[in-house]
Design goal:
By secondary structure, the chain is mainly α. It is built from 13 helices and no strands. The protein has helices spanning 27-40, 71-80, 82-87, 93-97, 103-131, 136-162, 180-189, 198-203, 210-215, 224-237, 247-260, 278-284, 297-304. α5 crosses α6 (136-162) and α6 crosses α11 (247-260). It starts with 26 loop residues before the first helix and ends with a helix.
């Protein structure tokens, strides 16, 4: 992936400045939508397109529309075709719907996506099968199976890091005048981990440590488990929530949120624990039991320093 985490090796073969990863999204667009927008504005409504990928309603603050009733179906399609959903990520579907997207920029990005996607399809389903001769059908089926497996697995890993109970989302107003210390705290509050052994973390690219990934996006992923020990100790010391749990539970909670928010707010109970925004949690919880809020961030960081 085109993250800068391994640039310290100074290996031109894998440097993020020229590495083009084996998926449908162009590297240039990934660097903007993920490396900059997502990591700078993690779980901020109106900025971070990872919140629903432009087709899913993942927060009560997002306006409900009758089209949201189909969310379980959209979710299944997104999981099955996840690399193509990611490929459209930087287009910013919400801005296109609102007519705010520059048409020239949109066309330029679409041309990039078309070229990259075309090359991916030709590689997996034309060139490699042709090189296999009489085994072309076996190679085509194997590539399709590999792509489907990668899509489903990547989708589960990403959703487990952003939408389980306890992973908060934020509004644009809540990050106004945000300090760097408050930014670090938002990364912890807006992310979730999942538990598992070394094999599971290797298979997930160490993104089971999503909190650490968001805190230190330049850190090589194989070091997340080491830094996680210190991050968790700090969270315990200052009573900061550290959201984690088994993989199946984390995804189950994310799936429940997707299904529940397919309906209007009035048809589902807001007391159920979908990922909260600070404002909603402030209304719902007592001072003794609620997690930290935007106005408290400065005080937290002063007490931690």
């Amino acid at each position: 992936m085109n993250d800068p985490a391994w640039d310290w090796m100074n290996d031109p073969e894998i440097h993020s400045s020229n590495w083009e990863w084996d998926t449908a999204q162009p590297a240039e667009q990934w660097k903007h939508s993920h490396n900059y927008v997502h990591h700078q504005f993690t779980n901020v409504l109106g900025y971070d397109n990872d919140i629903g990928y432009g087709i899913l309603r993942m927060a009560r603050e997002q306006k409900w529309s009758p089209v949201n009733i189909g969310q379980p179906v959209y979710n299944a399609l997104l999981a099955t075709l996840f690399q193509w959903g990611v490929a459209l990520h930087d287009l910013d579907i919400e801005r296109i719907r609102k007519g705010e997207k520059d048409p020239k920029e949109m066309k330029r990005q679409l041309r990039q996506i078309f070229r990259k996607g075309r090359n991916q399809v030709l590689k997996d389903y034309v060139v490699y099968p042709a090189l296999a001769g009489k085994q072309w059908k076996t190679v085509m089926v194997a590539n399709a199976t590999a792509n489907l497996t990668r899509n489903l697995w990547s989708y589960v890993i990403i959703f487990c890091g952003h939408f389980p109970d306890g992973a908060m989302h934020f509004t644009e107003e809540e990050i106004e005048d945000e300090t760097r210390a408050e930014w670090y705290l938002r990364q912890m509050l807006g992310s979730a981990n999942f538990d598992g052994g070394p094999l599971l973390h290797v298979m997930s690219g160490n993104l089971g440590f999503q909190i650490e990934h968001h805190l230190f996006p330049d850190l090589p992923s194989n070091r997340y488990s080491e830094i996680a020990v210190r991050v968790r100790q700090l969270c315990e010391k200052y009573d900061i929530p550290y959201t984690t749990g088994p993989l199946h539970r984390q995804y189950g909670q994310a799936l429940r949120t997707i299904i529940k928010l397919s309906l209007p707010n009035g048809m589902t109970s807001s007391d159920q624990p979908e990922p909260p925004s600070p404002e909603r949690s402030r209304r719902r919880r007592t001072d003794a039991e609620r997690p930290p809020r935007r106005k408290e961030l400065g005080g937290w960081m002063r007490s931690a320093s």
